[in-house]
């Protein structure tokens, strides 16, 4: 019995270290941006296999170092980090392909064709590997996008949601693809097309589609999620380019 208990303690300690490492790295690099609400202690405990007490100690340490803030009744939120944007840019540059100009030269039409080929492959992995924390981040992105007061803010959280899909596959290939996608989305041509095409009615449709996709993923229904995601991307393409 003593050996088994020791094993449990060892596993939980590893979980606490993994949680601390993940949160600090994500906040420092800007993957978890200012104002993002972290999952509840219970969800973090389940996702990382750490005890509730260990989760509280990790959060207390991060709070003491000015990475997060906690409000009773509201939750835990990421604080602004002066070096986060710089670190994120540095990380992207380090991971960039040998010919970075290829990304700059990608047109919005080419991007949509690639997304239609690649993103529908993700639901199969998401329903298999996604955690409680992954779904919490998806819902956070949806809520932020629905509350956005500008097209730019909506577009940011729309992109974060699709990036969260990639993260939930727990496959580094899809994460890299979505990072490249977001680089193209930040270009002026994409923004011009999106501002021109994004009417209030279409935004409402996108928001409903986002919720339906996430609901299917939470139900572990890969076929439905794939169908909904494909339809969502096709509608974006139609709204951007017609035809």
SSE topology:
Elements: H1 2-29, H2 41-48, H3 52-64, E1 68-71, E2 75-78, H4 84-95, H5 101-104, H6 108-118, H7 122-129, H8 132-147, H9 151-168, H10 172-185, H11 188-197, H12 200-218, H13 222-241
Antiparallel strand pairs: 1-2
Helix pairs in contact: 1-3, 2-3, 6-10, 6-13, 7-13, 8-9, 8-12, 9-10, 12-13
Keywords: DNA-binding, Transcription, Transcription regulation
Protein name: FadR family transcriptional regulator
InterPro entries: GntR_C, TF_FadR/GntR_C, Tscrpt_reg_HTH_GntR, WH-like_DNA-bd_sf, WH_DNA-bd_sf
Descriptive report:
- This protein has 2 domains: about 1-80, Winged helix-like DNA-binding domain superfamily/Winged helix DNA-binding domain (Arc Repressor Mutant, subunit A, Orthogonal Bundle), CATH 1.10.10; about 95-240, Up-down Bundle (Four Helix Bundle (Hemerythrin (Met), subunit A)), CATH 1.20.120.530.
- Helices cover about 75% and strands about 5% of the residues.
- It is built from 13 helices and 2 strands.
- Strand 1 and strand 2 form a beta hairpin.
- The model is unreliable at about 1-10 and about 85-105 (pLDDT under 50).
- GO terms for molecular function: DNA binding; DNA-binding transcription factor activity.
- It comes from Paraburkholderia panacisoli.
- InterPro entries: GntR_C (IPR011711), TF_FadR/GntR_C (IPR008920), Tscrpt_reg_HTH_GntR (IPR000524), WH-like_DNA-bd_sf (IPR036388), WH_DNA-bd_sf (IPR036390).
- Keywords: DNA-binding, Transcription, Transcription regulation.
